[in-house]
Amino acid sequence: MGSADLVGADAPERPRRPRWAVWGERALETIIRLSGVSAIIFVLAIFFFVFREAAPVLFNGHFNILQFLFSTAWYPTSESNIRYGTFALTLGSFSVTALAMALAVPFGLGAAIYISEFSGPKQKETLKVIIELLAAIPSVVWGFIGLTIMNKIIVAVTGAPVGVNLLNGGIILALMSVPIIVSIGEDALKAVPDSYREAALAIGTTKWQLIYRVLFPAAKNGLLAAVLLGVGRAVGETMAVLMATGHAVQIPHGVLDSVRTLTANIAAELGEAAAGSDHYRVLFLTGVLLFCITFAVNLTADFVIRGVRRK
Amino acid sequence: MADRTAIAAPFTQTAFGRRKERYQRIAQWVFLGMALAMIIPLVSIVAFLIYRAAPSLNWNFLVDIPRHGMRDGGIWPALVGTFYLVGISLAVAAPIGVLAAIYLNEYAGDNWFNRLINLAVINLAGVPSIVHALFGLGAFVYAARFGYSIISASLTLAIMTLPVIIASTREALASVPQSFREACWNVGATRWQTIKAVVLPNSISGILTGVILQVSRAAGETAPIMFTGAVFYKAVQRGDFFPYHLTDQCMALSMHLYTLATQVPDVKESVSYATAVVLLGVVLLVNAGAIALRIWMRNRKRW
Amino acid sequence: MPLPSKTIEIEDLRLAYGVKEVLHGISFDIFRHEIFAVIGPAQSGKTSLLRCLNRTIDFTPNATVNGSIKVDGQDIRRGDIYSLRRKIGMVAPLPVGLPMSIYDNVAFAPRCAGLSQKSRLDDLVEKCLRQAALWDEVKERLLSLGTALSGGQQQRLTIARALSHQPEILCLDEFSIAIDPVTTMRIEDVLKELKKEITIILVTNLTHQARRLADRTLFLWNGEIVELDRTETVFSNNPGSKKTYDYVNGTFG
Asked: Is residue C253 part of a domain?
């Protein structure tokens, strides 16, 4: 052997890292790995602790899961006949979300198209900053705006007796979900290669045709994901809908009816429900339901987005 | 004939060409209109809020305590409470979030386990704030026996805002060119030495941006703290900087705005508007800081 | 002439990215103090071969390496990965000045290895920069940014950095594609000088460069060895394989 010393003659002895540095690095990398796993732990913990508070009510004998999901009778504090039906609340959540999306999707995608296809660099920068600021406005401020400004506007315009209703909540939620739709939608449009645009413009298409014949099909998945994330945001929103939608547990028949959503219901009643009571546990069960809904929406959005990347 | 003229002067516009251009201009205006439809309400709403808040917006409003059953006076206890909540949640979320992002961007390979982590981060960001509140109540207030306290509320906020830090830190780390890392590995640097010497110094402003965004998010949240540690009212001395213990409940700006708007009758109008403006101002200022930092950082790239 | 001793022994090396195999079981030895050239068209696995050698391939997800590589008789998969990389200097095709000062660029590797003594670092930095023929150009501004240097200077800085951890083997991966011919010639002179102390592996698709510098030349094509022989033989009118003759004379590839 002895092969190494052939060179070793004039090469100086190799320096060594001090032991503490090696061990310190190893410890730090362990902490880094643990932090990486923390996200999984937190998601599981959220499900576990929320479900743990809810679970007893599922097995107490007189709780009916079908009634919980499909009855519209929500009388948690009734003297004689307590019933926990969340269907009206679920419908409330979906109607507000649907209205918000009907308003936010066209405007959000329109704005995304404008930013991505029409605006110059400076204008683009400005618009993106404004959208970022729009996204930063806290939901309680949105709720306050709904309760005060939007309330008065709706009363004045429609002549409805109260202005806190489905329409109000829908508009507020639309304004809140537009930023996420714009930013994800713009990402999707940006991901369409410029060669598509050049090829289309080279054969003399107009921008209209370019947008709906080339960009929409190419960015389809990304735009869909943008809408889904907007839905996720709207379904989960709490304070704004709590303050802006009125507070009636009912199936809405028009946009001027008051509604209550799953989220707002928890926020409104959790403070009054005694810890450990059935009412309290049913509210946690509603939380589990919400967790599952948003989980499904976000998962779908993620798969849709990753479908784009794989292509 | 149309064909002839086209050949004779190939660049003069045909009727068809003019129509096309008109369409084009219409398209531009339509989409600009859609973009403006979001911006104009924002600006006018903020202007209106400030206009209504004006009578109460002064220094005294910031440092005074609420008076007359919260119908008048200032917001000092809420301001300090928000400061406490944000500070503690930041101290918890920032290290975990930054390290988690380092793991995801620098260590994690492309396998099922790391895809699972990614999925968890995405879902953590999507969990509704009220579900976080339920989690905080079940986990920190009851299971961990922290009770209704600043510590419970801050921890809930920390977990809720973790994805904000992870996402922006990852983006910052990913913007450091891979060739730098490979150059370091080639000379025998360990992963951590590489991260410390090259990756972190060149992404630190991006990481800071994420941390700042966490602050803005945490300051504005209401639902997660509503059932874990924030209260309607807490008696505090005017201008007292240390009115709370970690195990106390506290007031918070966002919660205070909700209370004034929905729970207290006959509040002096300018007081609730001013509370909204202060909360909005804090959040937007912090965000503007993050944006400014990002622009500054872009102008001094070193490669 | 004493019998040349082997410094690298490669046996049946196979490398796959996912399911796509890029090196199909190659075996050869490299002798101490020779300049060993690897030539071949793009995509033939030259760079991947180098990445196997210093195990940076380990940090690439989905890459699987089979077969054995021994450096100085020791299987590289056994020993410490970081000492292995210090033993092997690596110069990438595109110059990479790290975003730190010129001094720190060169001092980075020894510092990582645990050297912190200022005077020894100073000496080492000067020695490496001189070896890379860069010292005279930068000695006045050692504290300015490495990324601010010109392309050719950055490539010499990269070489200085590769020498800074005192490697016994220096790998250069198409080092001249981003720099001008004059600088290339200067670096080639540097390599001839370095050859007295260390082994040099030169990956290049400039066949003339291999002809000028190398003692032995390996012709790699599609992950397989076509020919490995003394450089004079490979570039003669009568190499072992018709394919080599065609490639070297530009009729294919």
From this structure: no
Neighbours of A305 (CB within 10 A): 21
Distance from CA of C2 to the nearest CA of A (A): 13
pLDDT at A59: 85
- List residues of chain B with CB under 8 Å from any CB of chain C: 109-111, 179-180, 182-191, 193, 197-198, 201-202, 302-303
Res A10: pLDDT: 44
B211 has a pLDDT exceeding 60: yes
Average pLDDT over residues B209-226: 90
Of the listed ranges A215-224, B46-55, B78-87, C232-241, the least confidently predicted one is: C232-241
Of C61, C99, C164, which is closest to B109 when you measure between CB atoms? C61
Query: Which stretches of A245-277 are DSSP H helices?
Result: 262-269
Q: Which residue of C has its CA nearest to A12?
A: C166
Rounded mean pLDDT, C63-70 = 88
Is the pLDDT assigned to residue C6 strictly greater than 90? no
By C-alpha distance, the chain A residue nearest C6 is A3
Which residues have CB under 8 Å from C118's CB, separation 6+? none
A12, pLDDT greater than 80: no
Q: Which of C83, C96, C112 sits opposite B193 (nearest CB)?
A: C112
Domains recognised in chain B with CATH numbers: 69-299 (1.10.3720.10)
pLDDT band at A11; cut points 50, 70, 90? very low
Option in B34, B220, B223 nearest A107 (CB): B34
Q: Which residues of B touch A232 (CB under 8 A)?
A: 126
Say yes or no: A203 contacts chain B, CB-CB below 8 A.
no
pLDDT at A118: 85
Query: Is C193 among the domain residues?
Result: yes
Is residue C35 a part of any domain in this protein?
Answer: yes
Token pair for A109: 């995608």
3-state secondary structure chain B: CHHHHHHHCCCCCCHHHHHHHHHHHHHHHHHHHHHHHHHHHHHHHHHHHHHHHHHHCCHHHHHCCEECCCCEECCHHHHHHHHHHHHHHHHHHHHHHHHHHHHHHHHCCCCHHHHHHHHHHHHHHHCCHHHHHHHHHHHHHHHCCCCCCHHHHHHHHHHHHHHHHHHHHHHHHHCCCHHHHHHHHHCCCCHHHHHHHHHCCCCHHHHHHHHHHHHHHHHHCCHHHHCCCECCCCCCCCCCCCCCCCCCCECCHHHHHHHHHHCCCCCCHHHHHHHHHHHHHHHHHHHHHHHHHHHHHHHCCCC
Quote the number of domains for chain C. Answer: 1
- The minimum CA-CA distance between C12 and chain A, rounded to whole Å, is 23
Provide the residue range defining the domain that includes C179: 6-248
Is C1 part of a structural domain of the chain? no
A114–B34 CB contact, under 8 Å: yes
**pLDDT of res. B166:** 93
Of B24, B33, B108, the CB nearest to A36: B108
Any idea which fold A83-310 has? MetI-like fold (1.10.3720)
Domain boundaries, chain A: 19-59, 83-310
Closest Cα in chain A, distance from residue C148 (Å): 27
pLDDT of res. B90? 94
Mean pLDDT of C82-94: 86
Contact C114 A11 (CB under 8 A): no
CB contact under 8 A, A137 and B143: no
Q: What is residue C125's predicted lDDT score, i.e. its pLDDT?
A: 93
